[in-house]
Design a protein that fits this description.
Elements (H helix, E strand, L loop, with lengths): L1 E6 L3 H11 L5 E7 L2 H10 L4 E5 L7 H11 L4 E6 L4 H10 L3 E4 L4 H12 L4 E2 L1 H14 L18 H11 L4 H8 L3 H15 L4 H10 L1 H7 L4
Parallel strand pairs: 1-2, 1-3, 3-4, 4-5, 5-6
Length: 225
């Protein structure tokens, strides 16, 4: 059973999400919150696996809440619920450890599937906003790398793994990567697990950020002209 907290300052939204998600036998909504302070209060008394975190909330927004959650409860996953108007917050929340972004208005089936994906160690960035997320990284990155990997880890990466990394950097899903590289989704998952282990990275989101930061080098390594 996956314990979930829904954080949104609109009661109608978090109550509706609670009702719908509670119909899934694998999901247990253990609480709702209307700001970051209430999220932190819930974490003190309940075991929470995944938080659906609205980006814009009063008193404490989803970005700061994500930072504090990941600092004190690193095993708790955060999925940020966003809109196309939240570009300024995207970079910060991912940097603070959010496992992904979903657009508000996503179908309930996709939302439940995303919770399960993140709970199992994956990352979820809605395909509709993936391009905007990575474009934002391109504009906001400075000379200092945001994500660093284990020293000499690059030498352990195979040619196919570099191809997978390049695809992750484009914001593509496992299904899309499998299609592009003529692999099964299971094989792609295995490659990703191997890459994360070699790089000593926490999750797919960190790998995506690293891939964007190092896209030119990766392009050279996979022989792209």
């Amino acid at each position: 059973m996956i314990n979930v907290v829904i954080a949104d300052d609109q009661a109608l939204i978090h109550d509706s999400l609670k009702i719908v998600l509670s119909m899934d036998p694998e999901i247990n909504v253990v609480g709702t919150a209307e700001n970051g302070f209430q999220v932190l209060d819930l974490l003190k008394i309940k075991r929470v696996d995944v938080i659906l975190m609205d980006i814009r909330m009063p008193k404490m927004d989803g970005v700061l809440a994500t930072k504090l959650v990941k600092k004190d409860y690193p095993q708790t996953k955060v999925i940020v619920l966003t809109t196309f108007d939240d570009d300024d917050f995207v970079f910060s929340a991912l940097r603070y450890g959010a496992s992904g972004y979903l657009l508000k208005g996503v179908s309930m089936d996709e939302l439940a599937a995303s919770i399960k994906t993140v709970y199992s160690g994956g990352a979820m960035i809605n395909p509709d906003i993936a391009a905007k997320v990575f474009a934002l990284f391109n504009h906001q990155m400075d000379e200092e790398s945001i994500i660093t990997i284990r020293e000499d880890a690059e030498q352990e990466i195979s040619q196919t793994e570099w191809e997978v990394i390049r695809q992750v950097g484009k914001g593509r899903s496992n299904k899309e990567i499998a299609s592009a590289l003529f692999l099964s989704e299971g094989t792609v998952r295995n490659y990703l697990s191997s890459i994360l282990s070699k790089f000593c990275l926490r999750d797919r989101t960190q790998l995506a950020i690293w891939a964007v930061e190092n896209r030119k080098r990766i392009k050279e390594l996979v022989g792209q002209k």
